[in-house]
Design a protein that fits this description.
two-stranded antiparallel ribbon; endopeptidase activity; protease; about 250 residues; mainly alpha; single chain
């Protein structure tokens, strides 16, 4: 990591220094509460607190980091702008592969990740006209292509990554931030509520985490190739767009 001494703002530098301990602290601080918030939201259908958590991830770089620090995590103009589009398409491709493998292995059962996630869309009527389907697809896609891609990529591929990279280099840091991202998403699928109780679907959960880990590496590559965090955000947004397409046009 460059600019080690100017990564955090002066007031923050008294308490935080770039390194794996700080990165782990951020993961614990935001990821553990998120698990419980998402599990509760999957029952109620109320994701407002999840959205607030994403907004916190949005603002953290501007609250904690210097201008040099924000540049270090990729908040800057892309060096290779065409990789924004490439990252978007790669994100869609990752999701498409995940969907078809899940459909092949588990059909339309709730052991298929996107089938279970579609069941948490409690605001969507059971029966949809073609016009309603398009409206819900556009609304859900717009939300899922902004809140989580921006917040999570600034956090995981940005702040968390650069803290771990300070001690272990970019490649191993990418494995760490990808693992953290994938594991926290067990709250979205893997730990499921079925038969009036919580269950861990061991094999589907393992595959879900494995596939998300791979997708995160693609997000990271998109950041590096584009020279900006926008590459990772675009890749994540492409993944979420494809996910909503499969949910509304293949599952619902």
């Amino acid at each position: 990591m460059q600019h080690l001494d100017t990564f955090y703002k002066n007031a923050i530098r008294r308490f935080l220094q770039p390194g794996w301990k700080t990165g782990l602290g951020f993961i614990i601080l935001l990821s553990i509460p998120r698990v419980f918030i998402v599990l509760q939201a999957s029952l109620t259908g109320n994701y407002q607190y999840v959205s607030i958590l994403f907004l916190v991830m949005w603002v953290l770089p501007f609250l904690l980091l210097t201008r040099a620090g924000r540049k270090q995590i990729g908040i800057k103009r892309p060096q290779h702008a065409w990789w924004i589009l490439m990252g978007f398409l790669l994100g869609m491709a990752c999701c498409t592969i995940m969907y078809w493998i899940g459909a092949w292995l588990f059909g339309v059962s709730t052991h298929q990740w996107f089938v279970y996630i579609s069941g948490t869309y409690t605001q969507v009527p059971a029966q949809l006209t073609s016009n309603d389907r398009l409206v819900f697809f556009l609304v859900y896609s717009a939300i899922s292509m902004t809140f989580s891609p921006v917040g999570e990529e600034l956090f995981y591929r940005g702040i968390v990554h650069e803290n771990f990279a300070a001690d272990m280099g970019d490649t191993r840091a990418a494995f760490v931030d990808s693992s953290a991202f994938a594991l926290v998403h067990l709250a979205h699928f893997g730990i499921v509520y079925s038969g009036q109780q919580w269950q861990l679907l061991y094999v589907p959960a393992f595959l879900w985490v494995l596939f998300l880990f791979g997708a995160c590496l693609v997000f990271y590559i998109s950041r590096r190739k584009s020279g900006s965090i926008l590459g990772a955000i675009a890749s994540h947004a492409g993944f979420n767009l494809a996910m909503n397409y499969f949910i509304f046009y293949y599952i619902r």
